Amino acid sequence: MQASDLALIKDAVKLAGRVATSYVGPAAQSWDKPEGAGPVTEADLAVNAALEGVLRAARPTYGWLSEETEDDGDRLTHDTVFIIDPIDGTRSFVEGSRTWAHSVAIAHQGQITAAAVYLPMRDKLYSAALGQGAFHNDTSISVSQADDLPSAEVLATKPVVSPEHWPSGFPGFSRSHRPSLAYRLGLIAEARFDLMLTFRPTWEWDIAAGVLIVTEAGGTCTDKTGAPLRFNNQEPTVNGVIASGPVLHRKVLEALAPATPGAP
User: Fold this and answer.
1) Is the pLDDT of residue 25 over 70?
2) CATH topology of domain 153-256
3) CATH class of the 2-140 domain in this structure
4) Average pLDDT over residues 197-226
């Protein structure tokens, strides 16, 4: 089923791209979600409706978790669930930038089994199925083998460098940023950057597809404490994300660990 699931969601994200690009970013109607949850546009809702129509018709027994669909908890009764971000990087979309993405994943009993992330304005399609490797536009990709944290090229927001996170001092790595978490994970998978960090509680739909793409590219993805990531949780969030090659991942966890009392 993974192979056919992957073909289904690869076609779906390309459909999403056609729907989203029929809108013009700054001209698309937009408004702010309640409680400071960020902006949403008519394009987000149109993409969500298109994806739901295609995917749920194709897999009627799968549950549904999407940023733009009210979560009624029904997904918790399903072993297999779609996890969707119709447009990841909505602010980028509104600004007319090219760094927004469509993210579609399938989780089975908490593990991602198929994933696709598509950036239509950059013609970049990342994809993976469990045990079958990761691909960028149908070319096999692998994570960076960087093993030195201070010299690493890191994708992260500015708060990540705050001293409060680094008990032994900030390692001094070079920081860059991309507005879409799904895109950041794709860039890790294709070794354009060495490490991606986010320490805030993170919505599952932002990272579900990207996590499988990184791990199938030979990388390691955990929460910020090093715990495995599980999906379709009752509260659909994870405790931050660390994504990189295995050696660098271990060094990040060492650098984040609280200092041992009495140690020199």
Assistant:
1) no
2) D-Maltodextrin-Binding Protein; domain 2 (3.40.190)
3) alpha beta
4) 97
